[in-house]
Amino acid sequence: MKYSIVILLLAGFLITELTGCATGWWGRRNVSGISRYVNGDAVSVWEAIDQALIGVRVKERDVEKGFVVTDWVKGYSTTRDMGLLLEGRWQERYRLFITVEPEQGRTYLSVEAYVEEKAPGGSRAYRWERVPSNGMPEQMFLEKVEQILNAQE
């Protein structure tokens, strides 16, 4: 009897721990990432990131750990609408996770995005739903940083 209670408690603990693994910081789902090496030292890359993020609120920034998290950037979906009769527009927002890892003579830059959308009407109009990123926010940001770095040379 005592062993069955211990096994039951142990199983319950393991189940709760394993279900938490899927939603933690290190287990991001529906995240598309683009990474590449950029020419330049870490200081110039951080300056380029700061310039590229002008107009975007930064939620968290840690140069020592090498990451930046932006706040949500809101807009309207370019791929979804409700049609001609209903004339509704889907809202869309994304948040960027930027990682900077300096190496010898160049820097590894990784950009990942959370993307969420909200329907224009009905019960779905009151909640944001996570959708997979199509890679556009990450690609646009990375190209902007590379343009700034090329202009600095």
Write structural notes for this entry.
- This protein has about 150 residues and is of the alpha+beta class.
- It has one domain (about 30-150): START domain (Alpha-D-Glucose-1,6-Bisphosphate, Chain A, domain 4).
- It has helices spanning about 1-20, 40-50, 135-150, and strands at about 30-40, 60, 65-70, 75-80, 90-100, 105-120, 130.
- The chain starts with a helix and ends with a helix.
- The relative contact order is 0.19.
Search tags:
Alpha-D-Glucose-1,6-Bisphosphate, Chain A, domain 4; 153 residues; 37% strand; alpha+beta; 3 helices; 31% helix; 7 strands
Largest sheet: 7 strands, antiparallel
Kindly state the number of beta strands: 7
Rg is 21 Å
Total domain count? 1
> What fraction of residues sit in β-strands?
35-45%
Class from helix and strand fractions: alpha+beta
Question: What is the CATH architecture annotation?
Answer: 2-Layer Sandwich
Order of helices and strands: HEHEEEEEEH
* Low-confidence region ranges: 20-30
Q: How far is it from the N-terminal to the C-terminal residue, by CA?
A: 73 Å
Which percent range fits the helix content? 25-40%
CATH class: Alpha Beta
How many helices does DSSP assign? 3
* Shape by Cα distribution: flat
CATH superfamily: START domain
Mean pLDDT: 81
